[in-house]
């Protein structure tokens, strides 16, 4: 018979009140507490904690405390990652984050879900679905990423969005529920190249 952890990672119903899962959850909570108790002078310590917390990271990873996570061992992060204050990761299923991803304050990545039928939910059965975030993604403040969502590369998610479905590459997506507003195009690039040139002129 499969363990509760094996069921959890597979996205099947499982019971979280399990000794093996409790031990792994303790790992995540202990390290996030240590992170949250650091100061701005503790840059190297923060990096070391994050590299121990997550399953894998790039060389450059920065999380602004406070930060909260279930496990950490189910989250993989690419190069040049930044998360601002108060982000929450519920990583009972895998969270996979690409390179050059920026999270604004209070972004939530929630892989956890519960049966909508109350008597089954009341038996403490729950499940999770993975979240995947591509490269070069910026997620605005207060956005919620729901279980099973894939966000493509080059995407911008507007503040306060509730993302319930996959978002294609190179899109601006906003709202509750989050919808694609438009594709990022050459006009955007021209505008921001001009803004960058003005920056270097001043």
TrEMBL record:
Enzyme class: transferase
Database matches in InterPro entries: Hexapep, Hexapep_transf_CS, LacA-like, Mac_dom, Trimer_LpxA-like_sf
Species classification: Bacteria, Bacillati, Bacillota, Bacilli, Lactobacillales
Pfam families from the UniProt entry: Hexapep, Mac
GO molecular function: galactoside O-acetyltransferase activity
SMART domains found in the cross-reference section: Mac (SM01266)
Record-given protein name: Acetyltransferase
Protein family membership: Belongs to the transferase hexapeptide repeat family.
E.C. number: 2.3.1.-
Keywords from the UniProt entry: Acyltransferase, Repeat, Transferase
Residue stretches making up the Maltose/galactoside acetyltransferase domain: 5-59
